[in-house]
Amino acid sequence: MRYTIANDPNTTVCDHPLCRQNLTVIRDKNTTAEVFRNAVRRLTYLLLYSATEDLETEEVTTITPIAECKTQVIKRDKKIILAPILRAGLIFSDIASDILPNASIRHIGMYRDEKTLKPVWYYDKTPIMYEDPQNTIVYILDPMIATGNSALDCITLFVRKRIPIENIRFVCLLAAPEGLAKIRNSYPNIKITTAHIDETLSKNGYIIPGLGDAGDRIFNTLGD
Ligand code: URA
Q1: Number of independent structural domains in the chain
Q2: What is d(CA 118, CA 97) in angstroms, rounded to the nearest whole number?
Q3: pLDDT digits (tens, 9 = 90+) for 170-221
Q4: Does any domain span residue 204?
């Protein structure tokens, strides 16, 4: 089951029973890194299934062992980009590239300055310009929309490279209302898919109730 928020048809909450089940696993502070990663991988299938449902397809001819028939493939002029935000977004990449085998993976590296809560860029593997921006579809992958600062920077990066906003999608596990509002202020039309919208943000920018630091939980670096 999915629903869109009443005043925001571009945010989809993937509220499927399997999403709920796996969210419970990753929220639990006693979940080990290995179990956490596996639950996020399962969520990646579910979120991507929802986020890609408007991809256009075209007809091709396929010969089965029995007969020739008309079948569908994702439109071949579409260039699909997966943009995981390092480091936590990496957890989405393997499954996402499995589902979208022809996609290019464009890593973006940023970390959060703990004082200002602003993103600090350290890596950008996106090309200077895209050859065919109208036919380029970008999935930005980051487990958390908290303050919305890094999401906003990343969306702006692709907008400056002339990718139409309706071709950019943001996929996350959890979103805070404050971060969503910040993104919506600048980009009312970007499509966001999340498994849940949580209550609020803590003073230091953590999602409440959230799941803690996604990167630390994925890479087993809690307590560093
Ligand atoms: N990033 C995280 O990993 N967790 C939060 O709660 C907020 C930002």
Answers
A1: 1
A2: 29
A3: 999 999 999 999 999 999 999 999 999 999 999 999 999 999 999 999 999 9
A4: yes
- Rounded CA separation 65/75 (Å): 25
Q: Residue 117 belongs to a domain with what CATH number?
A: 3.40.50.2020
**How remote is the CA of residue 16 from the centroid of ligand 1, in Å?**
22
- Tokens, residue 113: 């300055």
Picking from 178, 223, 224, 185, the residue whose alpha carbon sits closest to that of residue 205 is 178
Q: How far is the CA of 185 from the centre of ligand 1 (A)?
A: 21
- Asked whether 214 lines ligand 1 (CB < 6 A), one says yes
Q: Which of 211, 217, 222, 224 to mutate to test the pocket of ligand 1 (most atoms within 8 A of CB)?
A: 211
**Which domain range does residue 91 map to?**
2-54+78-219
pLDDT, one tens digit per residue, over 28-81 is: 999 999 999 999 999 999 999 999 999 999 999 999 999 999 999 999 999 999
What does the longest C-alpha to C-alpha distance in the chain come to?
65
Ligand 1 atom with minimal separation from the 215 CA: 3
